[in-house]
Specification:
mainly alpha, elongated, membrane, transmembrane helix, transmembrane
């Protein structure tokens, strides 16, 4: 468990370095929209990477598609249109 926490801290350290390099430039140039997008994507990347390191299950878009279409598929199997 300690090695996983060290890995998460490593991800946070890398993200902090990226922020220290990128944010001042964007701020000086007045790139507010780009800064917001950068922040959102960086936080999303940090979150997904941390969850992956902590070996939690992360649902994929295919899981959501399966949840949506499963009742329809079951219905088609029930009426005999597919096997």
């Amino acid at each position: 468990m300690l090695s996983r926490m060290v890995s998460v801290l490593g991800i946070l350290l890398v993200a902090a370095v990226i922020c220290l390099l990128e944010v001042p430039y964007m701020w000086k140039k007045g790139l507010k929209k780009e800064l917001w997008l950068f922040s959102i994507l960086l936080l999303l990347g940090i979150g997904i990477s941390s969850v992956k390191i902590l070996v939690w299950t992360v649902p994929t878009p295919l899981d959501w598609i399966t949840v949506i279409y499963k009742p329809f598929s079951d219905f088609l199997i029930h009426i005999g249109l597919i096997k």
